[in-house]
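ok trying again, last paste got cut off:
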Amino acid sequence: MHYNTIVIGAGPAGLFAAQMIAKQNLKVLLLERNAKAGKKLLLSGSGQCNFTHAGDMIHFLKCYGEHSRFLKKALLTFDNQMCMDFFQKSGIAYHILPSGKVFPKSMQSEDILDTLLLNCQLANVEFSYNSLVEDITVYDTLFTVETNHNKRYFSDHIIIATGGKSYPKTGSDGSGYILAEHLGHQIIEPKPALTDVRVKDRSFSVLSGLSFQQIELTVWHEHKKVIAYQDDLLFTHKGLSGPVILNASRWINNNDHITINFLYPRTYEEANSYFTKHLSEFGKEELITFLKRLNLPKSFCQVICESLQIDPHILCAKLPRKMREALVQALTKCPFEIESLGGFHMAMATAGGISLKEVNPSTMESRKQKGLYFAGEVLDIDGNTGGYNIQAAFSTAYLCAESIKNKIKK
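nice, full thing came through this time. structure:
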């Protein structure tokens, strides 16, 4: 059977691209290895599907690390407002949280998936479920796709939209990398992203469940500063989580060090000056009471004091200078050594993937093979938590579809 386009992977990128192309009365086949579409999409946003973010594009372009430049064309061509309009026109009302996260008003991920599937149905996209692609070959400009059912399909265009390696039980197990590699593409080693971390020092495990708003986290690799992030933090029984950790995880490796400033935006110097001045002012007050003035939880203060062998009930006036400096250091540059990142089974996204050097950012077409396209997380792109990864899936899929449609017009 010959098709204009074969899309591999029925996630948000694959579904969106398929319906766009098929609407041009073009023959489109969507191959999905699972028995149903959108298995991973249903899990996103804890089953509520935070499908984009309402921030402006200047903000958006800062949320993909070093790969923002590659995504610029895609994000500006099909932006977050266009994404919200698409779902609204399809009958899905949306709700924007104060944080800027955008959810379907029902807070049900099924509504987003059902809308994509309905659009595919109306456009006459042909589906083949339980179809694992085992090989793709190309002769001249014609692709041959072979699946696990010993079926063979032919197509003028291929879109690989198989996702990364996170949540492998959903079918997102890195199989798209193998297909791309066989077609001559370099794969940047995949690693978990948007995941929590385990730390070697478990003395903070008693704080599991305690959260902090707007701290600053700095990542250090072999004593060199890598990146700094500001956001919310959550202590877990084995380490650290929360948006600041999830967003920074793409930069973190095992055995790296991180430091946390719990008094952000105060620097060490500013905090030290504050302590020097006010400890004497509240000299008859216990240290633990003074620390609560900084909106620091009592349990946290007790752990910090214990780690420094400081009596939390010491009077402020009697705190020695060296102890004061050590305390300020611990509050503004609290060190943690990373034992490991949460694995792919826990990670919400994948860093790494198909090398962006080999993909045209204006079309998402391979620079190595005409007619071959990539969309979504199979590429070496990963965004912050907050709807950025699903938006990138839609935006890259849009460019794939537009490029294929434009070729037909010519």
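cool. The domain at 2-192+344-409 is CATH 3.50.50.60 (FAD/NAD(P)-binding domain). The chain has a mean pLDDT of 95.
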